[in-house]
Request: fold
Amino acid sequence: MKPTPSFNRSLWVYHFNSGSCNGCEIEIVAAITPRYDPERFGIKLVGSPRHADVMLVTGPVVKKMKDRLLRVYSQIPDPKVVMCIGTCGISGGVFYDSYNLEGPVDEVIPVDVYVPGCPPRPEAIIHGVVTALAKLERLEGGSA
Amino acid sequence: MTLAGTIGSIILWTVLVSLFGLVAGLFLLGIDRKLAAHMQARIGPPLRQPFIDIRKLLVKENIVPENAIPWLFNSAPVIAVVSSLVILLYIPLGSLISPLGMYGDLILVMYLLTIPALAMVAGGFASGSPYATVGAQREMVTMIGYEFPLAIVVIGIAWRLWAAGVAHPFLLSSIAGNPIWGIVGPLGIIGLILLLIVLAVVTPAELSRIPFDTQEAETELAGGLLVEYSGRNLALFSLSTAVKTLVMGALAVAIFFPWNLSSFVAMPAGVAQVADLLFFLAKVVLVMFITVTLVRVGMARFRINQVVTVYWVHFALIGLAGLLLLMADSALGTAAGVL
Ligand code: SF4
Reply:
């Protein structure tokens, strides 16, 4: 199904921790504080993957989390966008050659937007969301 | 009018009122979110955000989990929306006649109010997820909690109207037609204020809002009852919440603030109905702001065992005190009449 314009104005975000050090979580929470107020654009955090449009994945994928990540990813109804927050999820970051990693997030599920930083600033996360919006708009134009 | 004509006009009126209920309910949710955002020093979403959310949910995939009971899982949201719309048909909206107003009274409305909640409970149990099951159990406990204080309010008001000699005291049109504040004496006014407080505390629980949203608790139950719902079904549940918000506001307005603008200012009939409707909406927004928005921004969530204590002990006692005051007031009134 192709997204409509109202899709962009109502992104519900689900956050998944696949083995992060919690630094990225703190910045995500900072990005939803009144100072940045993403609810202006209809963005809100939801507790269930079934309600989500965007999945934020933080941290490298550790061995135990791989199955869970795949399962949660498939629980999100289409159309969906995956954002990878933090250097860990992009390359492994400080955990780069650790023995218990399945590898970066994009080796497990398809990632649409990468937000680098360890941890990324809230501004960077919001910029990532804007990039995701642009991608959704391209999808709309593409499949119309 | 012929029978067919009557039925036809009732159906037309029903459709119009339902559409009005959906639109007004969604706007109410938008106003609620905007006001809450302003109270937290944010800008907040646009007023039409709930409409955007619904449209988005309609394009999303509608997932039915593998271990759910599909027919129950899919019919629960429909029942929730339809039953909340049906309640709206019994409640007076401004000076407009409600389509089914003469066929049902406040007791029926009280029963109907439980149906959307029961539909959510059925949907929760049918989704086959432990989170939803816990949420459904909590919803039932909450319902058992708030029904009692709500019944006290309804009985109290109707009994006082009956004592004052109003015919059909349970009929919403006679409740709205005889503003209760004008009937009672000073003691009764204190009693009515207590009952008003009880109704204001029951409202957030009916709408599963903070502080009584243990059944949907996002942070502990991940959405609780609604955890497995997505796409169209979730949209229907949001619509049902929207209509229920309007219903609870309209109920509080009909019982406690039934005045119409047209009874104070002389106006031609057509203008009067529009003005009354706008005035009614303004009253509903005010009621909703105080009972839902203010409370949900200012408070944290109760635990489920606290919910029951709050309703059965604290607010049942406050309600009974209000009821006693109303009875004392009526007795004093009769005594004064005899002397
Ligand atoms: S990117 Fe940095 S802050 Fe984020 S999870 Fe990895 S180590 Fe922690």
